[in-house]
Amino acid sequence: MAAPKKGRRSSGSQGYPGRALAVILIALVALTGGIFLSGHKTPRLGIDLAGGVSITLTANPDKGHPVTKANMNTAKDIINRRVNGLGVSEAEVQTQGSKNIIVNIPKGTNADQAERQVGTTAQLAFRQVLLVTSGEPAKPTASPSATPSGTATPKPSGSASPKSTSKSTGTPSSTPKGRAVSSALTSGVNKAPTPVPTATPSAPATGSTPSGSTGDVSVPADLQAKLAALDCTDPVQRARASEHALPTDKVVACGQQGGQWLKYALGPTLIDGKKVSGASSRFDSQQGNGWVVDLNFNSSGAKAFTSVTSNLASQQNPNNQFAIDLDGNVVSAPSVSYALTGGSAQISGSFTQQSADDLANVLKYGSLPLAFTISDKTTVSAALGGEQLRGGLIAGAVGLALVVLYLVAYYRGLAAVAILSLLVSAALTYTIMCLLGEAIGFALNLPAVCGAIVAIGITADSFIVFFERIRDELREGRSLQPAVARGWPRARRTIMVSDFVSFLAAAVLFVVTVGKVQGFAFTLGLTTVLDVVVVFLFTKPLMTILARRPFFAQGHKWSGLDPKALGVKSPLRRVRRTSSTETKEA
After folding, report:
1. Cβ atoms within 10 A of the Cβ of 323, count?
2. How far apart are the first and last CA of the chain?
3. 219 and 130 Cβ atoms separated by less than 8 Å
4. C-beta of residue 269 within 8 angstroms of C-beta of residue 248
5. Which of 33, 131, 147, 155 has its CA 20 to 30 A from that of 296?
């Protein structure tokens, strides 16, 4: 009595295979609907398949910051936020060795902007203007003016980079409270400095910060010599004007105002750019400034800004100007007529929307702790990427074809179960990759394609384990339905152990590697998890349903379960009953 009951439980343990099939069908429909709703019907492609730019940045000590692992990781995170802030979410940023950062930017609408920003140090400082003169180097017979309050005649230079808007600073009502609006420097004939109307200065803030220390407006002789020799029309000299300068140093810098290059002698840093808590770009139609960048300071920065503007307001032009110094470039040099409170400021000029967005982006995500130089830059054409993609797809098709041929030749009818399972696994993998590209910025690269190809063998191995367990049960004299029911628990354990080992290897590989190898590990891990899902929710339920069909249950020679080929007698159940009857009669 015990044996029949166990047999009935085994048969009943088949459960409701239709429900499992319905679950995976609903999942496929939901995922497919998701990719249509998201508008991303194909996976995002990495740089090696879509084309793009690979940039190697080499770190150098900057302003007292050594090249350490912590500084490198900080720089990597900032660069990654800058690039992602522009919507290039499939870009890849990782450290290599102790001094290099690799940035891979796939071809896209914002790739050019991201390329410009990856190595920008974005060291922002607010400095007092000591002296302003023409951007061209002084002639040998000329000597630079030592009077800080005078300005030499700026000569037009033919460049059209951002310039200050022609807006004079007058009474406090002419400028919004809490904002500093750039005023244009007059070009043309030499003019005596004009006193700027000032509001009643508020009391300077106290403390040990550099803010408020605007008393020393002298220009040392060595700084005068640097200013005289500096040629702001030369991009190399512009880049090196304030190289390796400390915040406490007086420096020379270049900037553009009114379409011409100007040279500045600047005092020590009054407010560090790290006190900027936020930055955004907008179109200022009310004041007629065009595209501007709004800055917001943190609490300490707001106090320092109030103190600095209060002190500057009591001085004459150009010493009442504070330069917004970004990486040695004077973005703007607004004059101050009264103390500005509220902890906010505005950078205005003839910005385009793109240039304003660029500036706000680098300010918003902070300054890099190190200086970087581009040591290598490689461009991968879209044509080369397309060839590599075709090669990967061909390799995958060849591997899949070989697996299908093996299954058909050895398992015959059972091969249909395996092929349908592979198709379901492929559909799940494809739809999930499409959605992950939008959700987490996953980009399919060539190693990831290799991981998907390797997964074909892993998935096929699970089917083979299940089929062989069923055949073993048939060889022991069981009919097909009990063979499927009894063979599944044994096959399930083997499949779970095998997939766990594969997933563990993929997880370790993902953690300990960087770059493109992570794409291989991620795809391998994803397809391993999907293998378990497909085997449990599709392959086993489908096999349970097919075991009830005469084609498989009666062991047709093309079913892959032919008793003669397996070494058992057919039909299985009839043979067992005959043997039992003969035993009783004997």
Report:
1. 27
2. 22
3. yes
4. yes
5. 131
> What pLDDT is recorded for position 122?
62
Q: Give the model's pLDDT for residue 134.
A: 83
CB-facing half-sphere around the CA of 127: CA atoms within 13 A: 30
Report DSSP letters for 348-384, one per residue.
EEEE-HHHHHHHHHHHHT---SSEEEEEEEEEE-HHH
Q: How do beta strands 251-257 and 329-332 pair?
A: parallel
Task: Please count the CA atoms within 13 angstroms of the CA of 266 that sit on its side-chain side.
Answer: 33
State pLDDT tens for residues 421-432.
999 999 999 999
In Å, how far are 88, 249, 366, 442, 559 from 104, measured between CA atoms?
10, 36, 21, 13, 51
d(C-alpha 120, C-alpha 327), whole Å? 8
> Residue 416: which of 323, 299, 549 has the closest Cα?
549
Find the helix packing angle between 446-475 and 516-534, rounded to 10°. 30
Q: Which residues contact 415 (CB under 8 A, 6 or more apart)?
A: 404, 407, 408, 560
270, amino acid identity: L
Q: What angle do CA 275, 62, 93 make, to 5 degrees?
A: 80
The pLDDT of 329-351, averaged and rounded, is 79
- Could you identify the residue written with the tokens 């770009």? 281
